Structure formats: structure tokens, C-alpha cells
Amino acid sequence: MSSLLKFAAIAFYALTFVVILWRTYKLSESEHDGNRSLMLTVWGVACFLHAAYLYPQTFTAQGLNLTFYNAVSILFFIIAVLVLVLSTARKAELLGLLVLPIVVTSIALTIYRPEIAASALNLHGLQLHIVASLFAFSVLAISALQSILLYAQDRHLRKHQLGGMTRALGPLHDTEKFLFQTIGVGFLLLSIALVSGFLFLEDMFEQHVVHKTVLSVLAWMVFALLLWGRWQFGWRGSMAMRWTLGGFGFLFLAYLGSKFVLELILQRAISIPVT
Fold first, then answer.
1. CA–CA separation, 177 and 198 (whole Å)
2. What percent of the chain is modeled with pLDDT above 70?
3. I want to staple 253 with a disulfide (CB 3.0 to 4.6 A). Which of 140, 147, 211, 257 is the partner?
4. Is 266 helix (H, G, I), strand (E, B) or coil?
5. How many CB atoms lie within 10 A of CB 200?
6. Which one-letter DSSP state was computed for residue 95?
7. Eight-state DSSP code of residue 271
8. Residue-level pLDDT at 162
9. Exposed e or buried b for every residue in 56-84, given b needs 16+ CB within 10 A?
10. What are the tens digits of pLDDT across the range 39-70?
11. CA–centroid distance for 34 within its chain
12. Is the whole model's pTM more than 0.85, yes or no?
């Protein structure tokens, strides 16, 4: 049943990708608006199917399963849902062209994943830290993808290429404003994740988590400097993209790079927090 749900989720995410691509490059403006409900419905079904297989796989009898492949799928499920919600209120669906292939890959990894040994660990108040960490990564991942779209849109406008993607994104000012709004929210969530980690974890600088702590702090510093540069000097365009991608690069290494090394390369036993 779990495998069937996974393949169904992949199929609906792929269909959503096709609908977004079709709307962006092939349809007239009136048709573009008329097929919006179809896109959102198909996307919603994909997210529902994704959640249906993730829930029992994550909340197990042994505890909360945050092993590498499942953690990757959880993160990109959150990203897919957030972009879907954003797409109902503004023209954010173009992010789906970047997000959905990664979401499909994350589900495929859970189908072909190797078994990883796991051990139980009591949370002791770590729920806030885990939730804030997951959402900080997800929101800042959206920021990183949005910065790529912003850079591409700016390049297209400079070359007077006004169709397709440029039209779908809307005014450059709105795209840029949305980017820094997501960075601001992600920065706040990352701050909560770090503070709660220092408060509830016994030692944030233990050997097996010190690299994650250092990389997360570096990411926090990069985003803090980016927001300060935006406020003080009006940073935008390629400058904003480089800083956003740099900050997210540190965060990616902290969250997934460290888990990949520990679980798949060093093959250490994984802790599954008990709820």
C-alpha cells in the first residue's frame, strides 16, 4: 500500500509539473487564468498522497523516524505544501518547476533506500527545535529557489524577453519583495531552531553534531548579513542571489550533508526520537 501511494504521489506531482509548464509557456493570458484551479487541485492531490504514506512511515511504533531518506522526503513535502499554499495567494506556482522534480526524486529515494539501523532517543522538549528546523530549512529552500527565478527574470528583462516565464512571474519588484519576505521568515525560524537547540540539547557541540551546529550558525550569519545589506544598501539582483544561495548552501550541508555522511558513509546507528 505504501509503495502504491508513493507511485501515485509521483504521478500527480509529475502531472502538476506538466500543467504548470503548459500554463507558463503555451497558453494565452485568459487560458492561463482559467486552468489555475486544475493545477491547484492536482497539486493538492499529490500533497495528500505524499502525506498519506509519510505519516505512518514517520510516526512509527519505535518513535519519530528522521533517518536520511525519510527526512529528505519530509523536508520536500513541507516545501511542496508551502509553495502550493503560496500559489493560492500569489503567482508562486513557477517555483513548482524547480521544486516538483526534487520532490519526486525525494519520494523515489524512499522507494529504493537501503535499510538504516535506528535507536530510540527521548525528545525532552526537542519538538520545538525539530519543527523550527524543518520549517526553517523549507522556507529558506524556497528563498534559494526564488532567488534563482529572480536572477533569471532580471536577465530576461534586461534582454527584453517579456514572454513565458517573465510574464508568469509578474513585476520584478513583487518577485524581489517576496524573496526577502521568505528570507525574513526563514531567518526567524532558523533563529528559533538554534536557540531551542542550545536550550534543550545537552550539548550542541558534541562530536556528532558540532559540524551541524557550526554550519547552521554560519548560515544564520550569512542571512543576517544579507538582511542587513538589504536594509542598509538595498542589495538586490545577483548580489541577493549569491548571498541567499551561499546561506542556504551552509544550511543544506548542516541539515542533509551531515546526515548523509553519518548515516550512509560512516553508517552510524541513527537515533529515532520517541514521541
1. 32
2. 79
3. 257
4. coil
5. 16
6. G
7. E
8. 57
9. ebbeeeebbbbbbbbbbbbbbbbbbbbbb
10. 899 999 999 999 999 998 888 777 778 888 88
11. 28
12. yes
* Contact indicator for 227, 187 with CB cutoff of 8 Å: yes
Tell me if residue 132 falls in helix, strand or coil: helix
pLDDT band per the 50, 70, 90 thresholds, residue 119 = very low
C-alpha cell at 140: 529558506
Task: Measure CA of the first residue to CA of the last residue in the chain; give whole Å.
Answer: 25
Helix/strand/coil for 45: helix
Grid cell locating 160:
527584453
Place of cell 504548470: 20
Nearest to 234 by CA among 149, 191, 177, 184: 177
Match 522534480 to its residue by C-alpha cell: 101
Average pLDDT over residues 268-275: 47
45, burial (CB in 10 Å: exposed 0-12, middle 13-18, buried 19+):
middle
pLDDT at residue 205, rounded to an integer: 60
* CA–CA gap between residue 258 and residue 273 (Å, rounded): 18
Cell of 32: 492561463
Cell of 34: 482559467
Query: Residue 237 has which C-alpha cell?
Result: 539582483
Nearest to 84 by CA among 99, 74, 71, 69: 99
